[in-house]
Amino acid sequence: MAPNDSAHIAEEDDLGTGRRRAARYAVPVAVIGVAAATIGLVPALAAAGDPSLPKISAQELIERIAASDTQRLSGSVRISTDLGLPSLAGLGDLAGGALAPKGGVGGGSSASTADPSTKLMELGSGTHTLRVAADGPDKQRVSILEDAAEYSLIHNGDDIWAYDSASNEAFHATSPEGTAKDKGTAKDKDKGKAKELSGKDVPATPREFAEQALAAAGDTTSVTVDGTARVAGREAYRLVLKPKQSGSTVESIKIAVDAKTGTPLKFTLAPSSGGKAVVDVGFTKVDFGKPAASTFDFAPPKGTKVTQGDEARRGDLAEPPKLPKGGEDAGKSAPPTVIGKGWSAVYAFTSPEGAPTGKDTAGLPKEAQGFLDALGDKVTGKFGSGTVYKTRLVNALMTDDGKVYVGAVTPDTLVKAADGAK
Q1: Helix (H, G, I), strand (E, B), or coil: what is residue 298?
Q2: Burial class (CB in 10 A: 0-12, 13-18, 19+), 380
Q3: 3 state SS of 122
Q4: Residue 364: its pLDDT value, please?
Q5: Predicted TM-score of the model (pTM)
């Protein structure tokens, strides 16, 4: 159990009119990118059955989500992800070594097991239980509960702390939104690292997933209300999004929306291939009251190894990550073009000069090559030949002549896109 972890919730909720997106810093998930970034949840439906609620249209429910401004909450979130990836067990130290900057994201000797950019990668697979709390845009906390330990990420004003109780290590940085008066000092220098910690652009709560899905809806999506549910003891409406187009790996997205506050409580992405959800995130317990102020207090316990954000930054500058081939020019490529639209959109680009192609991944370590081989299938078409690398959500076609086609679409759709681009 992490230190300073307080009991939840005290005062009555005061939703107010504060700034939106209170949980921006609460659960940064680099998957997430991958996103990040991703997630199966045991549905918290009450045994008494679905609640009886007034009828509501899909448009009215979407407007209720947009109008909601929940600034305070606390509770438990259960996350699980099933992208259909092969086991990482055979990679050994590769994930933290050859495929990542030396010494972790921070680089050099400043690497810390508390660094969120490495620790939160664990959320990219399997099932995890989180304890979350938020009190406006300046105070958030998320804790990953483990068998005999706890990992906590705390944002309180200008400070962002991460603490790993298993190793007794902590990571500290200054919030990129901070208002510190000592700009230009070391405290200001680590804001870039703090931005990574914040996960500002990485969806991780049900609300953030829902907002991204709704933003991508448009005329390519069927949006309906499919009855009601009870989630974490709350009455909710079920909003369902389904692609109108063929070729997508997404069968449907279901969002449970709190009937009283308009806050998304649960997000489930089902794949067109069938089986369990690819991404499913939701509350198992939730309270919209004001968390106790001490929830967001943190002081490293005695003996804790503390890594400062500016130390990690110096490590990054001292030894940037090395690409397999091509040197500095390997990171340069033209912006991607978009083939198609909506759910069947494919992003096409030319791989950087010197980077591995579908027929040449010799620059990768042996373990990484084996991992990619487990994901890949050889394909041919008018475009020539290449390899499709598959997950249950996002697929990528890497051609032998250095073109790359990526999307949440089926392999056949990628091949058709590549053929049409010739």
Answers
A1: coil
A2: exposed
A3: helix
A4: 57
A5: 0.71
